[in-house]
Structures are given as structure tokens and as C-alpha cells.
């Protein structure tokens, strides 16, 4: 009919055709990286960060990552089958998995991958003859070790600084690089992506160190790494399968729903034409009442069809002819079709919402598994009806070897380390298997050695043996000497047990919460007491470097030998006893003097900390006072500085609004770093700072307390900006830099 507008058909979702050739996949991967870079750039415009560099999305590193994803594509399709319809394809999932999320640099700072690799290297080398030759390769100045990101992990086999000396070699094997977040690139790097070669002393030391490891041990570590990597990937795709199946089913239903809707559009159009035809047909013996406006366009079709229910003729315009029975039937058919069409449209909308939710949940699952290593039980509710099972930790017998293998594979230009999503997800489980992988020990919080532990009696199910009770006899030998546990352990190891193996009795209840009870708990408590005592072994003061008191003793002993010849035997014995007493007293005096020096040093540190906190409090008071005053001048009032000012001290600046930060960055250069308020910083940056400036506005409480706590741990000065004007704040920095 004239004036009727046919409802618009829905676009059909074309079936996904996966890439089939290498060139198609290469273009697809490049396009995916480009899209993610655009997303990061849009995000950076709000947060002021260098995400492209932080996540290695540019230049040589991005190309190397793309190459790794592409090279593994044939193996992925060989190992995993896509759901019917290939929507989304296994290849698309592989690309999405390995683009964003995590880097090895971030993981090393958090989980100390190089530290674990250094322990494995020492394990392999110290088992060889002439292993002490490695000392020629290690640094001799302990001060340069402070640049490493240290953590409190006391090893029972190697001295703390020996492990860090090896880690130093690993860290400096290639030129030092940092990413956009300031993290050192310790595994993959632009240097490795470009496959540059160098012959620096550090590189030579690294090559010599690796050459001392038996190749068989290296090959075994690499083979185990590959095997466990595929176990992780198998499990990832297995748990992702329900998402893919649900998405495939939803897309199929959506395609069918839209086809149905489009058919109904055609039926509706034909039904409207039929109603118009019946309306215009002249009934016998009855005059036709003309339309008031036969060319009037019908109102827009309401999705819920309420207008049609109230007045079916509304789609044809007002003033229709008197209905006949055929017209009634035609109008009823039209109304029924319109309602079916409306229902199909709403179903399509619901399926679109469902598909979007499924895609979102699949992405959330991928982020969980690549960031955390496994999905915790509490997170499973986020996935609606998808039956995702809790992922139990993988069995990783030697996480130290896996950390070394990652480093070794990166050096040999293997693709695996460049698969950031899959490899970082696997390494997440590896690092969680390390002793410090879940929670890092802090000696300041140790209630046992700080004297805060509550007295507790052991449960009856836990019995720690008396180590010096001679109650053990060799079976079948009645004449054998009875031995104590301490004697048996010494005879087999040459080590003397601590005298008190009950230090950690108060931890029995904690072990019970983990299901460690009975003999297992007793063994754990004994081990904790042994290691805790050994870690705090009393030092030999005679080897502390100050041996002047020994010189006095030697002189006295030499003079005493001469006097001894002229003295009677009884007098000689008395003199010897007195000299022994003097020797003991001098040793005690030396120990007291050393303790006094250490106490003075501690008091000096406390005094310095008090002065810093006093300065911090004064700054806070000044900030509060000035915040109540009138708005300051927009420009700096002190003309004694030449702008831009080059900062000399290692300075960190936290907080401030974007406008403020943009202004102050324009006039402060040099050794100053501005930390974005949304940046989760690494505590290592505070370790090397000389002064920390805080702009309290636009800074969360969580961020503020984290800064303050770490500044106090590393004894760093904290200052506060007293003004809202960036120009006046720049003056404060310049004044404090003198």
C-alpha cells in the first residue's frame, strides 16, 4: 500500500572462516596487535602511562612476539579441535591469549625468577670438581649487589650474597633495559629480539658460568619445561572449551533467530498487502467508505505490538472500510505475524547480550589463568552457568630448573619465552611452587624471634622426641651402645642439632589448619626449629675484622713464656689461669664494645628516622595550613631559579592531578621521576631514591600508606608539597635539592 514502510531486516552473522594460510594468520596477528595498541593508547590518554613499552607491544619486541605466536599456530591446530562452526576458532583464542596480560619483567620483580635460577645453577656447578673456580667470575664488591631487587629468602645451602652474586651475572648478561613501568627486562628484551651480540666482561662471565653446567642437566631442564608447558596449555583449552561451546551455540541460535525474523518481515509485508487488498475490494450491496487519508504513512511499528493490540488498523491508516470476514482474517494474520516478529527481534537482542556476556567471561577466565596461574574457588561464581572447575596446582617437582630453563630458552632464541600469555600463565604456576611463591617472609613480623609468640602446649597427637635421651639401639645387637637422636644425626651428617627443638610449638595449631597433623606436624615443627636456629647462628666475633684484642693477647702470651722459666711450677699454673681469665675478659670486652657500636649505630638510625618523621610532620602541618589560605599565584614567585630546573638528587614525586603533573613536569628535569597515581609501583624504586615528594591531593589512602611504609623501611626522606600551584611546588623541589 502507499505510505507503508517495510521493517528493516537484520544483518545476518556470517560464519567465521578461520585463517588457513601463514600469510592470512600473519595479517590477523598484526591486526590484533594493532587493535590492542589502540586500546592501550586510549587508556594512556587518561592514565598517563607507557603501556606500549610496559607490555612490549612496539618495535622489535612486538615483532618477535608476533613471530612466536605465528610459529606455534600449526601445533595448536594439531593438538586442539575447535567446536563446530569454528566460532571462535582455536587460532583466534591462541592469538587473544598471547597478546596482553603479563610480562616476564613483572613476574621477576614479584616472584624473583632470576634468584631461583641462580640457586639451580649453583646446585649444578657445586656438584662438579673444581667448582670454586666460579669465584673468579663473580663480583667482588658487595655494594653493586644492592641494585638487585632483593627479598628475604635465607637458603640453607648457599650464603645469601653468593646467590645474589650469581644473579648479578644473570642480570647483566645483556645490556640493562627497562620497560615503560621502570621494570628491568631480565628475561626477554629488545636486545634479544634483535639478536645482537656482545662481548662485554659480564657476557663473558655469563657464558663461562653456563659452560660449567653439564649439558645433560640443561637438556633435561628444557625438556621438562616443554612438557609441563603443554600440560598447562592442555588444561587451559580444556577449561576454555565450555566457553567456546556456549559461544558457538549462542552464535548459531542468533543466526537462526535473525533468519526467522527476516522471514517474518517478508510475511508481514505480504500480510499488510493482503489487508489493503481486502479493504479495497467492493462488497456486494454495500458502498465503500473511502479512506480519510489513503496515502498516510503508518506509525512506526512498536516492538511490543501494543498499538496493534489496541487498533490493528493503525498500520493501515485511519478511516478503513467496514470490515468483512476476509478482512478480519487478514488483519488477524497480520497481527499474529507482527507479534511473532516482535518476539523474534527480542530473542535476537537477548542472544546478543548472552554472547557478549560469554565473551566477557571467557576473557576474564583467560586473564585469571594468565595472571594468577590458576583460578581460585571464590572466583568461579563470576562465570555464571559455565561449568569451570577449580584448577588444582600442577605438580612441578623442580621449579628452580624451570626458572633457569625460561632464561636459557630466551638466550637461545626459542619461541616459548615470547608467548607472553601462555608462558607467563605457566610460569605463574612455576613461581607459585617456589618457597616464597605464595607469601614472602618478613622477619619483622616473626613472633617467634621477636618474643611475641604465645605459649602453647602441643596436642597429644604430636610428639617431638627427646634429642639427647639415649634410647635407641641397633636391632639385633645387644652389645651396641645406646644412642640419642642427636648422636645418630651427628654420626651420619657431622652436624649438631639445636638444643631446643620446641621453639615453634605454638605453630602446631597453624599446621593443623593445613591438615598437617601427627607425625607430619612433629617433623615440620622440628624442621622449623632447626632451620630457624641455623639462620640466626651466632657469628664468630674473632673473624669480624677487628682483631686488635687478639694482638694484646699474643703479646701477653709471649711475655708469659719468658717469665715461666724463672717461676716455680705452682706460680706458673696460677699465672696461666689468670692469663686465661684475662683472655676471656678481653674477648667479652670486645664483644661488649662491638655490641655498643651496633647499639650506637641503631640509635643513630632511630634518631635520623625521628628527624625525618619530624620533618614529615612539619610538612604535613604546613600543607594543612596553606590549604586553608587563599589560592596562590599561578606562577612561581621566586626568581632565583633558572627554569627548567635540573634536579640533582634522585627524586620521586607521587600524586597530583593531571593538570598539576603536566605543569610541573615542564619545568623540572634531570634526576626526577613522576609516579602516576594509578601506577602500582615496585618498592625497588623507593630503595634507590634520595628524597620522596608527595602531593596529597589526588592520592588514595592505600597508595599513600604504601609509600610511607616503604619509605620508612628503606629510611628515605619524605617531603610534602605545601601548595596546590605546580609552580610553587617546583620551587619546593628546587629548594630541597640544594
Short description:
With 738 residues, this protein is mainly alpha-helical. Helix content is 54%, strand content 4%.
Describe this structure in words.
54% of the residues lie in helices and 4% in strands. The protein has helices spanning 22-47, 51-54, 59-79, 90-98, 104-111, 113-125, 160-171, 190-193, 201-211, 215-280, 306-310, 325-372, 399-411, 420-432, 485-493, 508-513, 518-535, 548-564, 569-627, 658-665, 684-687, 701-713, 726-736; strands at 645-655, 668-675, 691-695, 717-720. A 4-stranded parallel β-sheet has the order 2-1-3-4, with helices on both faces. Strand 3, helix 22 (701-713) and strand 4 (717-720) form a beta-alpha-beta unit. Helix 3 (59-79) packs antiparallel against helix 4 and helix 10 runs antiparallel to helix 12 (325-372). Mean pLDDT is 76; it is low at 285-324, 372-378 and 628-638.
Key terms for this structure?
single chain, 738 residues, mainly alpha, 4-stranded parallel β-sheet, 4 strands, globular
List the helices and strands and how they pair.
Blueprint: H1 22-47, H2 51-54, H3 59-79, H4 90-98, H5 104-111, H6 113-125, H7 160-171, H8 190-193, H9 201-211, H10 215-280, H11 306-310, H12 325-372, H13 399-411, H14 420-432, H15 485-493, H16 508-513, H17 518-535, H18 548-564, H19 569-627, E1 645-655, H20 658-665, E2 668-675, H21 684-687, E3 691-695, H22 701-713, E4 717-720, H23 726-736
Parallel strand pairs: 1-2, 1-3, 3-4
Helix pairs in contact: 1-3, 3-4, 6-7, 6-13, 10-12, 10-13, 10-14, 12-14, 18-19, 20-23
Amino acid at each position: 500500500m502507499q505510505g507503508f514502510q517495510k521493517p528493516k531486516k537484520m544483518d545476518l552473522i556470517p560464519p567465521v572462516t578461520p585463517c588457513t594460510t601463514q600469510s592470512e594468520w600473519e595479517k590477523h596477528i598484526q591486526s590484533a596487535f594493532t587493535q590492542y595498541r589502540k586500546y592501550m593508547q586510549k587508556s594512556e590518554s587518561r592514565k598517563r602511562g607507557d603501556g606500549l613499552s610496559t607490555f612490549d607491544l612496539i618495535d622489535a619486541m612486538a615483532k618477535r612476539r608476533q613471530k612466536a605466536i605465528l610459529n606455534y599456530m600449526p601445533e595448536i591446530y594439531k593438538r586442539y579441535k575447535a567446536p563446530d562452526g569454528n566460532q571462535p576458532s582455536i587460532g583466534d583464542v591462541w592469538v587473544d591469549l598471547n597478546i596482553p596480560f603479563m610480562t616476564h619483567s613483572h613476574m621477576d620483580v614479584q616472584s624473583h625468577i632470576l634468584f631461583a635460577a641462580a640457586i639451580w645453577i649453583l646446585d649444578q656447578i657445586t656438584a662438579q670438581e673444581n667448582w670454586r673456580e666460579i669465584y673468579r667470575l663473580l663480583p667482588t664488591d658487595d655494594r653493586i649487589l644492592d641494585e638487585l631487587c632483593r627479598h628475604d629468602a635465607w637458603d640453607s645451602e648457599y650464603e645469601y650474597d653468593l646467590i645474589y652474586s650469581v644473579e648479578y651475572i644473570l642480570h647483566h648478561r645483556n645490556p640493562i633495559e627497562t620497560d615503560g613501568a621502570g621494570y628491568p627486562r631480565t628475561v626477554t628484551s629488545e636486545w634479544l629480539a634483535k639478536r645482537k651480540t656482545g662481548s662485554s666482561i659480564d657476557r663473558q662471565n655469563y657464558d663461562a658460568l653456563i659452560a660449567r653446567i653439564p649439558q645433560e642437566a640443561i637438556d633435561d631442564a628444557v625438556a621438562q619445561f616443554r612438557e609441563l608447558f603443554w600440560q598447562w596449555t592442555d588444561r587451559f583449552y580444556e577449561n576454555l572449551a565450555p566457553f567456546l561451546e556456549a559461544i558457538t551455540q549462542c552464535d548459531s541460535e542468533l543466526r537462526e533467530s535473525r533468519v526467522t525474523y527476516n522471514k517474518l518481515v517478508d510475511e508481514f509485508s505480504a500480510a499488510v498487502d493482503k489487508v489493503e487488498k481486502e479493504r479495497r475490494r467492493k462488497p456486494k450491496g454495500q458502498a465503500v467508505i473511502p479512506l480519510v487519508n489513503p496515502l498516510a504513512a503508518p506509525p512506526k511499528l512498536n516492538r511490543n505490538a501494543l498499538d496493534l493490540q489496541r487498533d490493528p488498523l493503525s498500520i493501515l491508516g485511519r478511516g478503513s472500510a467496514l470490515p468483512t470476514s476476509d478482512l478480519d482474517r487478514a488483519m488477524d494474520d497480520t497481527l499474529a505475524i507482527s507479534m511473532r516478529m516482535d518476539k523474534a527481534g527480542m530473542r535476537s537482542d537477548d542472544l546478543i547480550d548472552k554472547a557478549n556476556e560469554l565473551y566477557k567471561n571467557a576473557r576474564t577466565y583467560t586473564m585469571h589463568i594468565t595472571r594468577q596461574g590458576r583460578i581460585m574457588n571464590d572466583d568461579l561464581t563470576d562465570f555464571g552457568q559455565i561449568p569451570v572447575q577449580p584448577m588444582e596446582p600442577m605438580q612441578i617437582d623442580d621449579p628452580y630448573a624451570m626458572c633457569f630453563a625460561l632464561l636459557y630458552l630466551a638466550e637461545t632464541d626459542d619461541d616459548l619465552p615470547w608467548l607472553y600469555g601462555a608462558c607467563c600463565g605457566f610460569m605463574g604456576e612455576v613461581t607459585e611452587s617456589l618457597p616464597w611463591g605464595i607469601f614472602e617472609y618478613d622477619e619483622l613480623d616473626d613472633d617467634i624471634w621477636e618474643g611475641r609468640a604465645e605459649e602453647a602446649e602441643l596436642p597429644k597427637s604430636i610428639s617431638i622426641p627427646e634429642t639427647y635421651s639415649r634410647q635407641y639401639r641397633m636391632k639385633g645387637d645387644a652389645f651396641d651402645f645406646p644412642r640419642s637422636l642427636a648422636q645418630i644425626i651427628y654420626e651420619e651428617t657431622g652436624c649438631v642439632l639445636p638444643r631446643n627443638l620446641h621453639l615453634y610449638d605454638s605453630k602446631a595449631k597453624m599446621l593443623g589448619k593445613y591438615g598437617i597433623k601427627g607425625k607430619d606436624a612433629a617433623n615440620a615443627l622440628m624442621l622449623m626449629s632447626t632451620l630457624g636456629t641455623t639462620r640466626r647462628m651466632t657469628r664468630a666475633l674473632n673473624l669480624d675484622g677487628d682483631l686488635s684484642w687478639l694482638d694484646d693477647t699474643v703479646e701477653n702470651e709471649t711475655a708469659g713464656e719468658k717469665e715461666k722459666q724463672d717461676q716455680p711450677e705452682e706460680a706458673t699454673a696460677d699465672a696461666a689461669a689468670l692469663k686465661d681469665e684475662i683472655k676471656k675478659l678481653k674477648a667479652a670486652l670486645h664483644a661488649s664494645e662491638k655490641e655498643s657500636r651496633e647499639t650506637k649505630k641503631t640509635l643513630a638510625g632511630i634518631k635520623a628516622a625521628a628527624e625525618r618523621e619530624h620533618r614529615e610532620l612539619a610538612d604535613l602541618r604546613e600543607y594543612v595550613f596553606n590549604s586553608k589560605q587563599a589560592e596562590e599565584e599561578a606562577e612561581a614567585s621566586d626568581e632565583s631559579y633558572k627554569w627548567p630546573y635540573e634536579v640533582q638528587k634522585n627524586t620521586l614525586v607521587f600524586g597530583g592531578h593531571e593538570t598539576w603533573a603536566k605543569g610541573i613536569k615542564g619545568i623540572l628535569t634531570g634526576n626526577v621521576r613522576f609516579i602516576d597515581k594509578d601506577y602500582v609501583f615496585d618498592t625497588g624504586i623507593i630503595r634507590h631514591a634520595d628524597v620522596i615528594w608527595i602531593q596529597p591531593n589526588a592520592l588514595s589512602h592505600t597508595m599513600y600508606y604504601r609509600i610511607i611504609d616503604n619509605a620508612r623501611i628503606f629510611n628515605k626522606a619524605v617531603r610534602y608539597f605545601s601548595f596546590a600551584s605546580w609552580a610553587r611546588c617546583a620551587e619546593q623541589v628546587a629548594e630541597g635539592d640544594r
